[in-house]
Design goal:
The complex is a heterodimer of chains A (383) and B (333). Chain A has 383 residues and is mainly α. Chain A folds into two domains: 257 residues, MetI-like fold; 59 residues, no CATH class. Chain A contains 16 helices and no strands. The N terminus of chain B is likely disordered. The chains are: A mainly alpha (383), B mainly alpha (333).
């Protein structure tokens, strides 16, 4: 399995190389190089113009510029943002990337889980009215015009029902007297979520071979304990209200993204389940007289999961793209918002930086799914 | 000519076996193209029966037909019923109202936008744009995807590796991010956007799926036979492999339309596209005029958003129903 993962990583590196070359070609192909905005200024003297050209490296041949581009990229130097001048692009992105990541990861995990459950049930309901209703609704959500759908969600939950705030990351009134910066609270929240998932994973793995009763007890007990400890720690630190405020702001974007993304997984699971249900071992399980629920969850769904995980790769890109649209509607100050604003204001360094980071994010997510797949598929695990 | 009909290997012999003897005799007297036409008609009818079993596909088809009529109706209305100065989707203005936007009325069924233009007229005009864009993009996708898939599957080796890595890259990257950056770097209009979407789609997922199908076609006996008979690479790809990939290509065309319509709407909603009028631009206009979160002027946002959703969903529905026709593993026995 190590060999498989190493091979995959190597492929990712190659793909990333191809990606970097393509971004450079795009920049080169752009009509009117972006540095022209400065060089074409009529008030510049020829000497100043030459100095500027040298600074931008425009007097050098393309292959030298390309090696410089790659070198700068590897050193993490993405240039200086026009829009947030004189902040370097790396700094702008470092501030915003975690927020995008949270939106992306949370919604991907939730929508995958919900989609898989729904798909399992859907395959079992084949041919009944419920199947058509869910398929129709799911497919409509899957193809819904996301900006419009996000607006509808805002209208329903924030405007009419007033359950959630209308967009933004935090409530400014509350934070005016806050002792720390928003990013500190946010990063601590991230840390909490990470530690929590690691602990839950450890509990799940440790109780894997126990009897179902102990397993259920340990998992739910562990979850309750973890929740209690987390709440206590946050309350004790005095940052509780701020953390709650942030969580309150994140619910609606995550809900929107989940609703849009879960249908893809659901429909795939359904197809995969229908194929699995044809297998002989399902007939055998039926002949043994096993309850339907056991056949569905233990025999069919386990095996139907594999192709779904494979196609999760497609869903990752969609979810990432969807996150970027969602960020803009909910004014969530993540990378998607930075990307769009910089695209609209021709802030090319920031836009290219965002694209590069989104690309890296997508590649890493792809790698994670591949590794996950290796764990799930015994043919790879024991090879 | 008559003898040749039955000895051609391309003809499905199973079907002719099923024909009654007298029909067979009658068939022998027909020229080859007529026989082919009949076989085509018969297989289409069989596929239609499978397709019609899926309510979801029929719903999708109905929606597409409705929108098609909607688009065709626009030039007729503009020519006969609606005065151009008031109802033109781009430069129209209704001076009868002191301020715009106004809500739905007898003169403007869906109200007017902040610039005083008729929303219904814009909606109908936008339908045409959506169809043009979606179908152009889908055609480019299928053209490239089928070619890339067939070539990669047939030749294998280095060509295959390169094309498939490229496809990996395209599917890993979020579509909309690439388009946003392209919109920032280049001037995109409806046609160039359609071509760009088509290229991205063609080199991406479609190519991978079609390549895997091409691999299964490549090992069939008739490919071997064609090679033994002296057929070159070009002949085999064009006459034997690609015709067998076409059902799948057509299926992916449907998904391509869905993607293209959504992408165009998103880009014009963000104002990154140089289009005269489209559904996305209608919402963008409402946005720039500050009506985006003003939900009392629902007619500025609801009809356009609903149309985008409905039309792309309709193509997706048709695609899913076709999936069950093309992909026999899903069919219920």
């Amino acid at each position: 399995m190590l060999r498989y993962i190493l091979g995959r990583t190597l492929q990712m590196v190659l793909t990333f190389g191809l990606f970097v070359v393509l971004t450079y070609v795009l920049l080169e192909a752009q009509p009117g190089d972006y540095s022209q905005t400065f060089i074409d200024n009529p008030r510049l003297t020829p000497a100043q113009r030459e100095a500027l050209e040298r600074n931008f490296g425009l007097d050098e041949p393309p292959h030298v510029r390309f090696t410089k581009y790659i070198g700068n990229l590897l050193r993490g130097d993405l240039g200086i943002s026009y829009q947030y001048y004189p902040k370097p692009v790396t700094e702008v992105i470092a501030e915003r990337a975690p927020r995008t990541l949270v939106l992306f990861i949370t919604s991907t995990i939730v929508s995958f889980y919900v989609g898989f459950l729904a798909g399992k049930i859907l395959a079992w309901q084949r041919g009944r009215a419920l199947e058509y209703v869910i398929t129709l609704g799911g497919a409509t959500l899957f193809t819904v015009f996301l900006p419009w759908f996000a607006l509808l969600m805002l209208w329903l939950f924030a405007y009419t029902l007033d359950w959630f705030p209308i967009g933004k990351f935090i409530s400014p009134q509350l934070w005016r007297t806050a002792p720390v910066e928003a990013n500190v609270v946010f990063n601590n929240l991230l840390l909490t979520a990470f530690v929590g998932s690691v602990v839950m994973l450890a509990i799940t793995v440790a109780t894997r071979r126990r009897t179902p009763r102990i397993r259920t007890l340990a998992r739910w007990g562990g979850f309750a304990l973890l929740l209690g400890v987390t709440v206590a720690v946050w309350a004790w630190s005095g940052l509780g209200p701020y953390a709650t405020d942030m969580l309150w702001h994140i619910i609606l974007p995550v809900l929107t993204l989940t609703l849009v993304n879960f249908a893809g997984t659901m429909l795939l699971t359904r197809n995969s389940m229908l194929e699995t249900l044809r297998e002989d071992y399902i007939t055998t399980a039926r002949a043994k007289g096993l309850p339907e629920r056991v056949i569905r969850d233990r025999h069919a769904a386990r095996n139907a999961l594999l192709p779904v995980v494979t196609t999760l790769v497609f869903a990752l890109a969609t979810a990432l793209g969807g996150g970027i649209i969602t960020e803009n509607i909910f004014s969530w100050p993540g990378m998607g918002e930075a990307l769009l604003i910089s695209a609209q204001t021709s802030d090319i360094p920031t836009a290219m930086g965002c694209v590069l980071v989104v690309g890296i994010l997508a590649l890493v997510a792809h790698l994670v799914v591949d590794v996950l797949y290796a764990f799930l598929d015994p043919r790879i695990r024991y090879a | 000519m008559a003898r040749e009909t039955l000895t051609k290997p391309g003809l499905v012999l199973e079907d002719t076996e099923r024909l009654a003897q007298d029909e067979l005799r009658r068939l022998r007297r027909l020229p080859l193209w007529q026989v082919r036409l009949r076989l085509l008609g018969r297989s289409l009818a069989a596929q239609w029966r499978l397709f019609a079993e899926q309510p979801i596909g029929l719903i999708g088809l109905a929606i597409i037909v409705c929108f098609g009529l909607f688009a065709v109706l626009h030039p007729l209305l503009m020519g006969r019923v609606w005065p151009r100065a008031i109802y033109d989707p781009i430069i129209g203005y209704d001076p009868a109202f002191p301020s715009h936007p106004v809500g739905p009325s007898a003169a403007h069924w869906l109200g007017t936008d902040p610039l005083g233009r008729d929303v219904l007229s814009q909606l109908m005009f936008g339908t045409g744009s959506a169809f043009t864009l979606g179908i152009t993009a889908a055609l480019v996708t299928v053209l490239i995807g089928t070619t890339v898939g067939a070539v990669a599957g047939y030749f294998g080796g280095a060509i295959d590796t390169f094309l498939m890595r490229l496809a990996d890259l395209v599917i890993i990257l979020p579509f909309i991010v690439i388009l946003i950056v392209l919109g920032a770097l280049f001037e995109l209009n409806l046609f160039t956007l359609a071509v760009v979407i088509g290229i991205l789609g063609g080199f991406g997922g479609t190519a991978i799926v079609i390549k895997s199908q091409a691999l299964t076609v490549k090992v069939r006996a008739y490919i071997e036979a064609a090679r033994v008979a002296g057929g070159g690479h070009g002949h085999i790809i064009l006459r034997h492999i690609i015709p067998n990939l076409l059902p799948l290509s057509f299926l992916y065309m449907m998904f391509g339309v869905t993607e293209a319509i959504a992408a165009e709407a998103t880009l014009s909603f963000f104002g990154l596209l140089d289009v005269r009028m489209s559904w996305g631009l209608m919402i963008h206009t409402a946005n720039t005029a500050g009506y985006l979160l003003n939900f009392s002027t629902w007619w500025l946002i609801l009809p356009a958003g609903l149309s985008i959703t409905l039309l792309s969903a309709a193509f997706y529905f048709v695609g899913r129903a076709m999936d069950e026709v093309v992909n026999p593993r899903l069919r219920r026995r």
